[in-house]
Amino acid sequence: MKKAIVLYLHVHQPFRVRHYTIFDAGHQHNYFDAPYDDRTSNERIVHKVAQKSYIPTNRRLLKLLQDYPEFRLSISITGTVIEQLERWAPEALQSFKDIVATGRVEIVAETYHHSLAFFYSRDEFERQVAMHRQKVQEVFGQTPKVFRNTELAYNNDVAYWADQAGYKGILSEGWDKVLGWRSPNFVYRPSYTNSIRLLMKNYKLSDDIAFRFGDRSWAEWPLTAAKFSHWLGSTDGATNFNLFMDYETFGEHQWDESGIFTFLEHLPQEWLQQHDHTFMTVSEVIDAFEPVDTVDMPHTITWADTERDLSAWLGNAMQTSAIQDLYALEKAVLDTKDLALIEDWRKLQTSDHFYYMCTKWFNDGDIHAYFSPYANPYDAFIAFMNAYHDMRFRLIEKGVVL
Amino acid sequence: MKILMLGWELPPHNSGGLGVACYQLCKTLANKGADIEFIVPYTAQHDIAFMKVTSAHPQDVEAIQRSGIAYDSYRYKYTDGHEEVLDIYGQQALYENAVDQMLKQTAEAYELIHAHDWLTFRAALRAKERTGLPLIVHVHSVERDRAGGGLGNPLVREIEATTFLLADKIIAVSKHTKDMIVEDYEIPPQKVEVVHNSLDKDAIEPLDDDNAYRYLTALRGQGYRIVTCVSRLTMQKNLPNLLYAAKEVVERVPKTIFLIVGSGEQYFELISLAADLGISKNVVFTGFQRGKRWRDSYAIGDLFVMPSISEPFGLTALEAISYGTPVLISNQSGVAEVIHNALKVDFWDVRGMANQIVAVMQNDSLRNTLYENSFAEYDRLHWGPAADNLLSIYSQHQQAGATA
Predict the structure, then answer these.
(1) Do B125 and B257 share a structural domain?
(2) Which helix (H) or strand (E) holds B132?
(3) Is the confidence at residue B363, as pLDDT, over 70?
């Protein structure tokens, strides 16, 4: 039986809120337009990530796709990052179109705005999934068949929804508490569903690349493609190795100097030395293998932090009150039919805003600080709430009684 | 009469009410003929004509940069190029040395020393020792005020206690402060004179028509009411209790916004607390503001709240009234002695505070009556009586010094 690497990369950038003050509220509604040299400048960050990660990685992926007919991968790419690439880095967007055009890159479905809407408004969630599907069709000419929820936030309800919505697969974290005695290296079936399949991230192998790759104090450093392929090849009884990670792992989280690109360039060559080794996209692996068991997950799990729950986004009162206040505006905002207002409201739903307000400083704190453009979670909260206040101002201007 | 005045700050380099009070008091004293040299512990330009402002530089220090608000570090640049960052204790020790050096070299014939608050007290005692001049210490706050109900830092209390014993006269900015000096430091009451602070109305810059808080203005148009608080965010100011009261208020009058203007070490704690209480969208934190935004913070309010655990005077309450907003102040404040038409509450009484705020939010006639009567009291205040009182104290001690 074949053994497949299922490489899935997640591409995302939020529209970060600038240092928007209460004195801006009612005067200017440009929450996302920081000066170029500010840490919250979306344009500057997209320029940087395009140069360090998207363009050099896609160049290598395209070459691998050309050189190795068996090489393939899956990506998810949010609406918010596609918009930013269209505006500020069209050459990077073209490089994504180029790899997708090979026919061996599958795009995964998700919410357009990388939101946690599933847990706050099912209607809004479905609208954002539809918006994303339409955007992917327009830009890439592909219709996604496998779903991932934001931050791989997963439970039985999410699986049930995706099954009903007609997706053939759904992605989740392969967290030990879910797996129990099971291995993530197989295809599963979520409980209470008809036909959908579940692919769970092999977090140990994924994090070897995404987090530990450049860590010189790690016992396995340096990690080579040969060593990594050997680990996978000598794993008995596995059918699929689900390597799920942020796309920005390549060149951004792990810099060029770490050797990450060399690792990527050599992985197909090393892995495909055995005739029964191959690569599959998420749909292909679901078609290829029967599920070995069902998985029941009543609680929500995600791919973040040691808790693998939503506490990085909804772990303190600032985060929960900010997100509840935002969703409480849903009806009033949608009723205005003001597209700019509705779009700003949606951009504020992006999960990153709540991640920046996280106050879990221990263990995971360093990774939070690395990803935040704010000096501290309180500044993030204040800027967000001032944008929220301005949303309310705009509603009042439109005659809405608050 | 030539007065050596030792102070810690003057506007625009001030962090709070101390600098404003010193400035306005000196201005009135100067108008009445006092010849003042005011010594500050940092390097800066002051555009002040009515008195001489001198920067006390320790030996070999070229410049002293203030940073942040009260109790933050200063950066000392030495002539040999190296720099040092000193905390508040380092600063007051260097200030003492610098003032002493200055007096050693000066040809000025000072007749009296007037020192404001503990940061200048060691310098004041050294100056008294060197010159033999009478020393008047002016108490704008004592350590127990700043400690928010605790005893505070024993090192600071020791400096205060020693100075109160050795001073020739003690000026307290309120009876509230005098009582603390008498009780906490066992000073005979007749040694302490109450001279209430005031407010220089010429220094009140007028409002314009366009309030900087456009969002809050729009909310007011929707029937919202605004409770405003301008304060350093520090334990003394009792802001956690204000937020607990805010929760009670918002439950009863949801259309209430609390505007918290200022910075301080409790900033993050208060943001978290508001979120924990579930009232984040009703509490707006602006950080520290100056100028128009600062003035508009008072003006946008329907009620100004100063819930301090212990407030020697409380200039912000007068500023609020000057910008059209009635006040709710704690009984533990000096300003409560001069403004009678104010809502007053004990600092610990969260429900009482909420009760009074709710009443004003729901009743514009209460708000308006309160405001009109408080403004009448405010309107009668001026620095003249305080300056006259001080000049007479000066002359008593000048003569006492001359005959000694």
Answers:
(1) no
(2) none
(3) yes
Alpha helices in A145-259 (DSSP H): 156-164, 176-179, 203-210, 225-233
Q: Which residues of A touch B285 (CB under 8 A)?
A: 382
A110 catalytic, yes or no?
A: no
Q: Express the helix, strand and coil content of chain A in percent, nearest 5 each.
A: 50, 15, 40
Interstrand relation of A197-201 and A169-173 (parallel, antiparallel or unpaired): parallel
ipTM field:
0.86
Residue where the block lists tokens 């729950």? A309
Token pair belonging to A277: 């080794």
Residues of A in contact with B219 (CB under 8 A): 392, 396, 402
Find the length of chain B. 404
Residue with tokens 């919250």: A40
B63 touches chain A (CB under 8 A): no
Residue B387 has pLDDT above 60, yes or no: yes
Rounded to whole angstroms, how far apart are CA atoms A201 and A198? 10
Q: Domain containing B388 — which CATH number?
A: 3.40.50.2000
Residue A127 has φ and ψ, to the nearest 5°, of: -65, -40
Contact A26 B215 (CB under 8 A): yes
pLDDT at B108 over 90: no
A271-295: burial string, b at 16+ Cβ within 10 Å, e else: bbeeeebbbbbbbbbbeebeeeeeb
Averaged over A36-62, what is the pLDDT? 97
What integer pLDDT is reported at residue B337 of this predicted model?
96
What sign results for the dihedral spanned by CA atoms A290, A296, A300, A301? negative
| Max Cα-Cα span within chain B | 69
* Torsion angle of the four alpha carbons B213, B218, B220, B223, in this order, in degrees rounded to the nearest 10: -160
Q: For A338-389, give the DSSP string.
A: -HHHHHHHHHTTBHHHHHTT----SSSHHHHHHH-SSSSHHHHHHHHHHHHH
Same domain, B274 and B127: no
In which domain, by residue range, is B316 found?
A: 202-380
| Euclidean distance between the first and the last CA atom of chain A, given in angstroms as a whole number | 63
Query: A295 has which bridge partners?
Result: A190
CA distance B48 to B11: 10
Residue B355 banded pLDDT, cuts 50, 70, 90: very high
Q: Output phi, psi for B259, to 5 deg.
A: -105, 115
Q: Are residues B231 and B362 in the same domain?
A: yes
Find where tokens 């990774």 sit. A367
Edge-to-edge strand list for the sheet holding A197-201:
A146-147, A169-173, A197-201
For residues A13 and A46, the answer to whether their CB atoms sit within 8 Å is: yes
> Do B75 and B170 lie in a common domain?
yes
pLDDT at site A321: 96
Mean pLDDT for B162-179 is 97
Both structure tokens of A108: 């995964």
Question: Do the chains contact at B272 and A317, CB–CB below 8 Å?
Answer: yes
Q: B265 — contact with chain A (CB < 8 Å)?
A: no
Cβ contacts of A332 on chain B, cutoff 8 Å: none
Angle at B20 between CA B15 and CA B23, to 5 degrees: 130
Q: Poorest-confidence range of A124-138, A301-315, B249-263?
A: A301-315
Residues B216 and B323 in one domain: yes
Contact criterion met (CB < 8 Å) for A317 and B215: no
Distances (CA, A) of A192 to A24, A126, A199, B332, B345: 49, 20, 16, 64, 60
Q: How many domains does chain B have?
A: 2
- A79-123 pLDDT, tens digit per residue, is 999 999 999 999 999 999 999 999 999 999 999 999 999 999 999
What CATH number does the domain located at A3-295 have? Answer: 3.20.110.20
Q: Are residues B257 and B189 in the same domain?
A: no
CA geometry: angle at B381 spanning B375 and B383, to 5°?
150
pLDDT at site B71:
59
